[in-house]
């Protein structure tokens, strides 16, 4: 026969402690799982909010028609240029360049600047035959246009004789010269060049006096240039 006795206060206290300990034991594993989940969530959140580190390489903008190629994982900034069109040089927009026209050489020569004209023997003979016998500014201008390449040596001295003689003895025709120089500034330079020390000194003196004392209205600039050229040539004449 089982005899039941009334539990004492001490027995109840031990029972309560046992229940409490048992409860804590049951609750501990879930708490640990929740804590791990919270840790993982925080790590994921930090990874999402922390920017990924990017390697920035400083390269100049590629030429038109090309692009940078960086194909070395160990050296991400060791890059090289490639054309947008395979097999084509890196120039322009990378498209195939048209073949140069047959006369491109002549065009290039023309664009590089004027070449010195050549005076043929036939031209030299024609220019020298009358260079010192030109009687008007119209004739001087025509000879200048036709035989510029032959303006050298004895032919050049012949031009100087004609130019200075006209300025010294036919000063009243200066307006004709003025009109021609306004039409062609190179002709003015030609005339001033041929006021030189190869002509007689007394003719240079006449030209200097004409330019200083008898300049027609509107031709002051030309007269000033003629006066300066004559004075300089006179000082250099022998």
Fold blueprint:
Layout: H1 9-49, E1 66-69, E2 80-83, H2 104-111, H3 121-130, H4 137-146, H5 153-169, H6 174-183, H7 185-193, H8 201-213, H9 220-236
Antiparallel strand pairs: 1-2
Describe it:
The chain is mainly alpha-helical. It has a domain at 121-236. The chain has 9 helices and 2 strands. Helix 5 (153-169) crosses helix 8 and helix 8 packs antiparallel against helix 9.
Briefly summarize what is shown.
With 238 residues, the chain is mainly alpha-helical.
Keywords:
238 residues; mainly alpha; two-stranded antiparallel sheet
pLDDT averaged residue by residue: 77
For the biggest β-sheet, the strand order reads 1-2
Distance between the termini: 168 Å
Class by helix and strand content?
Answer: mainly alpha
Described by the principal axes of the CA atoms, the overall outline is rod-shaped
Order of helices and strands: HEEHHHHHHHH
Beta percentage is under 5%
- Number of helical segments with 4 or more residues: 9
Number-wise, the strands total: 2
Percent of residues in helices comes to 55-70%
Rg on CA atoms, Å: 52 Å
Runs with pLDDT <50, length 5+? 26-32, 92-97, 102-112
Q: What kind of sheet is the major sheet?
A: 2 strands, antiparallel
């Amino acid at each position: 026969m089982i005899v039941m006795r009334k539990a004492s206060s001490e027995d109840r206290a031990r029972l309560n402690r046992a229940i409490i300990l048992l409860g804590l034991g049951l609750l501990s594993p879930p708490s640990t799982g929740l804590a791990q989940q919270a840790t993982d969530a925080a790590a994921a959140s930090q990874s999402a909010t922390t920017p990924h580190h990017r390697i920035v390489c400083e390269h100049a903008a590629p030429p038109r028609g090309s692009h940078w190629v960086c194909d070395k994982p160990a050296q991400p900034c060791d890059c090289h240029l490639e054309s947008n069109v395979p097999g084509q040089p890196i120039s322009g927009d990378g498209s195939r360049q048209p073949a140069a026209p047959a006369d491109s050489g002549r065009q290039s020569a023309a664009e590089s600047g004027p070449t010195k004209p050549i005076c043929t023997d036939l031209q030299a003979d024609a220019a020298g035959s009358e260079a010192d016998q030109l009687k008007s500014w119209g004739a001087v201008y025509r000879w200048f246009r036709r035989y510029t390449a032959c303006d050298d040596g004895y032919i050049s001295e012949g031009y100087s004789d004609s130019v200075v003689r006209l300025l010294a003895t036919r000063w009243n025709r200066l307006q004709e010269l003025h009109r021609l120089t306004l039409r062609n500034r190179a002709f003015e330079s030609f005339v001033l060049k041929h006021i030189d020390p190869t002509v007689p000194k007394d003719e240079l003196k006449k030209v200097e006096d004409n330019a200083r004392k008898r300049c027609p209205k509107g031709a002051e600039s030309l007269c000033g240039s003629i006066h300066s050229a004559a004075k300089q040539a006179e000082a250099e004449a022998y």
